[in-house]
Amino acid sequence: MKKISFTLSDSVEISLYRAADGTWCCPVCGSVELQDQPYYAEGGASFEMCSVCGFEFGFDDEPLASGTHISGIQNNWIHWRQKLLKGARFNDTKYNMLVEQLKNIEVSAE
């Protein structure tokens, strides 16, 4: 994975990960499937939805669009990730898959 870090127009620093085949890792669950970069340096979102975790970039983290939004793009990613991990705790296969995927974005499940 190639780590790409940049600062958005609102001075928020984020890191995204890209696979050798050009697909992007979901910054929420680590799934390597996104065709578009979730966020661009100027701050725009792709509005692509991850088929694994269901997060839609530019919607689920946008205060004017989503009722589940909390302050900060990365805080939304963390919040959504915690919900995924909590929901997967009773399914060893799903939980282990998620733990492995999170390694793609350098995140530990603990």
Give structural notes.
The chain has 110 residues and is of the alpha+beta class. The protein has one domain. The chain is 25% helix and 15% strand. The chain has two helices and four strands. The protein has a two-stranded antiparallel ribbon. A two-stranded antiparallel ribbon has the order 3-4. β1 and β2 form a beta hairpin. α1 runs antiparallel to α2. The model has no long low-confidence stretch (mean pLDDT 87). This is Transcription factor zinc-finger domain-containing protein.
Topology:
Layout: E1 2-7, E2 13-18, E3 24-25, E4 32-34, H1 73-88, H2 92-102
Antiparallel strand pairs: 1-2, 3-4
Helix pairs in contact: 1-2
- Tell me the overall shape: globular
Sheet-strand content, in percent, reads 15-25%
Please tell me the total number of domains: 1
N to C succession of SSEs: EEEEHH
State Rg: 13 Å
Spatial arrangement of strands, main beta sheet: 1-2
β-strand number: 4
What is the mean pLDDT? 87
Structure annotation, total helices: 2
Residue stretches low in confidence (pLDDT < 50, at least 5 long) are none
